[in-house]
Amino acid sequence: MASEKDPGGLIRRIAQKEREIEAELVRARSEAEFIEERARKEAFEILARAAEERRKLGEKIAEKRALGARMRSDDRIREIHALEMRVLNLPGEVIDGFALEALRDIFPGEDFKSK
After folding, report:
1. 31, 71, 88, 89 from 25: Cα distances, Å
2. 2 in a domain, yes or no?
């Protein structure tokens, strides 16, 4: 078998896959932070526009628009947090998938069952 000839090869390949996954996780977290910051800026811009509307249209109308803007910004932030949670949950599943793929590549014909 391939593992008898090179037992460290499997470990090195799995370690390489783990490093690749960690790098992808760092990139995904960075992207999520960028999206979250952009959403926060957008929310502040919406709130600033709503404040200007209050001055122009009157207190009652502007309050309704500000509330709507706040709800939209809250929705965006919730979406970003949901994305962040998906990213944080990714490594275990991805690592398992890459490990299973590596085992199948190294030991063709073996029946490795995933959970």
Report:
1. 10, 30, 8, 10
2. no
- Which amino acid would we find at residue 115? K
Give which of 90, 79, 105 is closest to 25, Cα–Cα: 90
What's the whole-model pTM score?
Answer: 0.39
Domain coverage including residue 81: 7-106
**What are the structure tokens assigned to 106, written together?**
């190294």
User: Cβ neighbours of residue 9 under 8 Å, at least 6 residues apart?
Assistant: 2, 3, 106
111 falls within a domain: no
List of residues 6+ apart from 18 with CB closer than 8 A: 95, 98
115 domain-assigned = no
Question: 10-residue block means of pLDDT along the chain (115 residues)?
Answer: 68 91 91 90 88 75 78 87 72 68 79 62
Q: Is residue 29 part of a domain?
A: yes
Helix (H, G, I), strand (E, B) or coil at 114: coil
